[in-house]
């Protein structure tokens, strides 16, 4: 029986994917329209990967320039400035808030996200939902490592666990740890078209889905 749930955050608990997309576009707007198009395309094809990795890829594979430590830190700071407040204020995915509030006593809840650790902790605290989660994992911790660590530390059986995500990185983290997976589908159909898993458009029916697993 399922007793533990791992949640991605952006696009699963809150509708914040577009906020991150717009931030990437704004950060590289001065590089020209063609670069912005490539950056956004790369970001959308790799949701769930940390901005740290994305910045390094963008400089190496799109801009063909080296990325100094100062430039890297500047990008991270600017990105956080663009997105943090917006994510705090972003609407919940339909059914997410209700599910978390109604079933926190039934399941152990964890957040596993590519958002930097300090930033996600601030966001969760400011949204006043931090008390619902047993632990929150952000970058640079890899999603797969966070799940593995939690299962081992708390001696949770993978068969009693489900991961709710909207990116391939989420699916991989679940698969790496033999955890059941539920995909939240929202303009990401192509990502999961060949993946055999439960798929939902929002979290209103999540409890019913879990009961079927």
Spatial order of the strands in the main sheet? 3-2-1-4-5-6
Instruction: Report the end-to-end length measured between terminal Cα atoms.
Output: 8 Å
**How many structural units, i.e. domains?**
2
Which CATH architecture of the largest domain? Answer: 3-Layer(aba) Sandwich
Quick one: how many beta strands? 6
Question: What global shape is seen?
Answer: globular
The name of the CATH superfamily of the largest domain reads HAD superfamily/HAD-like
- Biggest sheet character: 6 strands, parallel
Helix content: 40-55%
- Mean pLDDT over all positions: 96
Radius of gyration (CA) equals 17 Å
Low-confidence stretches: none
- What is the CATH third-level topology name of the largest domain? Rossmann fold
What's the CATH C level of the largest domain?
Answer: Alpha Beta
Short description:
The chain is an alpha/beta fold. It is built from 10 helices and 6 strands, in the order E-H-H-H-H-H-E-H-E-H-E-H-E-H-E-H.
What does it look like?
The chain contains ten helices and six strands, in the order E-H-H-H-H-H-E-H-E-H-E-H-E-H-E-H. It is α/β, with parallel strands linked by helices. It folds into two domains: 134 residues, Rossmann fold (3-Layer(aba) Sandwich); 73 residues, Orthogonal Bundle (DNA polymerase, domain 1), CATH 1.10.150. Strands 3-2-1-4-5-6 form a six-stranded parallel beta sheet, sandwiched between helices. Helix 1 runs antiparallel to helix 4 and helix 2 packs across helix 3.
